[in-house]
Amino acid sequence: MSSQNLTIVQAVRDGLYTEMNLDDEVLVMGEDVGKNGGVFRATEGLKDEFGGDRVIDTPLAESGIVGTAIGMAAMGLKPVPEIQFSGFMYPGFDQIVSHMGRFRNRTRGRYTLPMVLRAPYGGGIRAPESHSESKEMFYAHEAGLKVVIPSTPYDTKGLLISAIRDPDPVIFMEPKLIYRAFRGEVPEEDYTVPIGEAAVRREGTDVSVFTFGAMTRPTLEAVENLEEEGIDAEVVDIRTISPLDRETIVESFKKTGRAVVVHEAPKNGGLGAEITATIQEEALLYQEAPVKRVAGYDVPYPLYALEDYYLPSVARVEEGIREAVNF
């Protein structure tokens, strides 16, 4: 299988191109996705390749984008609408939770919605207000939605293809902080990465560190630094927020007895709380220390001057791991 060396945003485009080339029912829509190739150029060149009927520039109206895609999916198409930033999804929230997440149940299985709602999420790029949120748990609370967040180019393409082929709606959140931060080997052919399965990025015995998206990189760096202190940490990339791979979480924790969860979303109500509850319910007798959460703060996302203080840094992750290990 031949491969190419791509960034995450290039892997997004490659995944879209691959599925559009294989399936005429797949189409892309959103603000500036056609002629301009999207605000991050994730759809660059697709309109030239597939035409205006399958790469559709929409008005600036998120509720209309999501609602139109729902209608298309109900009639058998496979739309992949893009919201320019995840903080712009809120005008479409009613469509997402009232229709997108409920359609299969509402029709008692007569209709499914094979659609993928893409949006770059997270901070660190010095963007204005409403451009930097990490609110994935809004959507994880809806039983009819799957929520996916990749952290590598390989996973990005494979998970995106899996999402497009899924008969049910998927929220696909892309970590824009690392859109172009590094490259990775990505097969040129089509392939899938299963939705609902976490990935162990590093084996370890002293503590399990659970993370996802853009926070995977500072977490791995922190773990490498702590090797010099004799701390052997395991790193689990969650990848799918919903459905959550509880089996991998519990298996890792039973091996180490200690856990740290790293995410840039606010601590209150974040994925760290759900992982902690899962550990308490399914592996309490293995626990050697309180679960440590290293997260964003419970405040509105700050602007430029304080952004680096808000996001979990390598130093904060290191300190969280030390606290769990030394308890």
TrEMBL record:
EC identifiers of the protein: 1.2.4.-
Enzyme superclass (EC): oxidoreductase
GO biological process: organic acid metabolic process; sulfur compound biosynthetic process
Keywords assigned by UniProt, alphabetized: Oxidoreductase, Thiamine pyrophosphate
SMART domains (alphabetical): Transket_pyr
InterPro entries: THDP-binding, Transketo_C/PFOR_II, Transketolase-like_Pyr-bd, Transketolase_C
GO terms assigned for molecular function: oxidoreductase activity
Transmembrane parts of this sequence: none
Cofactor: thiamine diphosphate
Keyword Oxidoreductase: yes
All residue ranges annotated as the Transketolase-like pyrimidine-binding domain in the record: 6-181
Name listed for the protein in its UniProt record: Alpha-ketoacid dehydrogenase subunit beta
Organism the protein comes from: Haloferax chudinovii
